[in-house]
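C-alpha cells as discussed.
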C-alpha cells in the first residue's frame, strides 16, 4: 500500500490524547483486546445507535472526565504529506482516516443518509469516552454516544505479537475502516436492529460486525480512486499482498480463532459476537470484490458464511 507522496494530509480528523492519562478501565471492560471484542457489546449494542435507542452507558460507566484535552501540535508537524504517511505509522493512520471519510462523504447519500465526519482519538494506555473508561486492552472501538473512534496505536503491534497477523499498512487501514463502518451504521440507524447482549453465530452482534467488515472492504475497493481535496487519490496502490494480509488478519480475529488460540481452547458458537474467521474473511471480500455497500446487508440474509 502506498500514499501519493505530494498529497496534503488533514490531521483535523484526529484528536491526539496520547499525552493525557485516561484513568482505569471500567468494571467489566477489557475482554480479548481485538477490535473491541467485548467493547462492541458494551459500547455499540448497549450504547444504541445514537438515535434514541439503547442505553446511555455514560451513566453506567462514568462518562468523560473534565479537563480532558487533545494536542495535535506534534501530529500536525510530522504528518503533512503522503510521503510522511509512507514512512510513519501515525501519519499513515491520518491518511487512512482522510481517505475513508472522503469515500463515505460521497457514498453514503446513495444509502439514504448524509455522512457526518467524526474524529479518531489516539490514546495511550487508557482513555475516558462517552461510553466510560477504556484501556488499550479493549482494542479499537467506536462509541455511539459521542460518535468517536478510539485507538491505542500499540494495538497494531498486538495484532502481530499476540495474534500472529502479518500486519502492514493496509491491515492498519482495514482496522480503522472497520471502525468507521460502525460510524456509518450509527448514521443509518442500523445499530438499533441489535438487541443488547445478543450473541451467537447468526446474532445481531455478529451481523453488525460482519457488515462493518464488508463496509471496510467496500472502501478498500474504491480507495485508489477516491479523490482528496486536490481531486487526486490519496492512496495510489493496494496490492494483492495487501489484500492477502487483510484476509489473514480477518481470520485471526474471528471468534473461533480467538477462543481456540487465546481462550479456553474450545469453540463456543453461542458466545460469538464478531463472527467466525470464515465469516469475517467472506464479508470483507464481499465488500472488496463488489465495491458496493448495498451488498453488505448482513441483516437480510440467512447465509452469513
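Sequence:
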Amino acid at each position: 500500500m502506498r500514499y501519493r507522496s505530494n498529497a496534503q494530509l488533514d490531521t483535523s480528523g484526529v484528536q491526539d490524547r496520547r499525552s493525557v492519562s485516561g484513568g482505569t478501565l471500567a468494571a467489566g471492560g477489557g475482554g480479548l483486546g481485538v477490535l473491541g471484542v467485548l467493547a462492541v457489546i458494551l459500547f455499540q449494542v448497549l450504547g444504541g445507535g445514537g438515535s434514541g435507542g439503547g442505553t446511555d452507558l455514560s451513566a453506567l460507566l462514568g462518562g468523560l472526565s473534565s479537563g480532558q484535552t487533545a494536542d495535535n501540535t506534534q501530529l500536525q508537524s510530522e504528518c503533512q504529506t503522503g510521503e510522511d504517511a509512507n514512512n510513519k505509522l501515525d501519519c499513515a493512520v491520518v491518511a487512512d482516516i482522510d481517505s475513508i471519510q472522503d469515500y463515505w462523504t460521497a457514498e453514503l447519500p446513495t444509502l439514504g443518509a448524509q455522512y457526518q465526519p467524526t474524529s479518531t482519538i489516539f490514546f495511550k494506555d487508557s482513555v475516558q469516552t462517552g461510553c466510560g473508561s477504556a484501556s488499550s486492552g479493549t482494542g479499537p472501538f467506536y462509541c455511539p454516544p459521542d460518535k468517536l473512534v478510539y485507538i491505542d496505536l500499540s494495538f497494531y503491534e498486538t495484532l502481530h505479537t499476540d495474534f500472529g497477523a502479518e500486519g502492514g499498512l493496509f491491515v492498519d487501514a482495514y482496522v480503522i475502516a472497520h471502525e468507521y463502518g460502525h460510524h456509518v451504521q450509527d448514521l443509518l440507524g442500523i445499530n438499533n436492529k441489535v438487541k443488547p447482549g445478543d450473541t451467537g453465530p447468526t446474532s445481531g452482534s455478529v451481523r453488525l460486525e460482519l457488515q462493518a467488515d464488508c463496509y471496510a472492504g467496500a472502501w478498500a475497493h474504491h480507495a485508489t480512486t477516491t479523490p482528496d481535496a486536490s481531486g487526486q487519490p490519496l492512496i495510489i496502490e493496494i496490492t494483492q499482498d495487501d489484500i492477502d494480509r487483510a484476509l489473514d488478519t480477518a481470520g485471526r480475529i474471528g471468534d473461533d480463532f480467538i477462543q481456540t488460540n487465546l481462550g479456553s481452547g474450545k469453540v463456543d458458537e453461542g458466545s460469538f459476537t464478531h463472527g467466525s474467521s470464515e465469516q469475517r474473511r467472506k464479508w470483507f471480500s464481499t465488500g472488496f470484490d463488489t465495491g458496493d455497500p448495498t451488498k453488505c446487508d448482513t441483516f437480510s440474509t440467512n447465509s452469513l458464511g
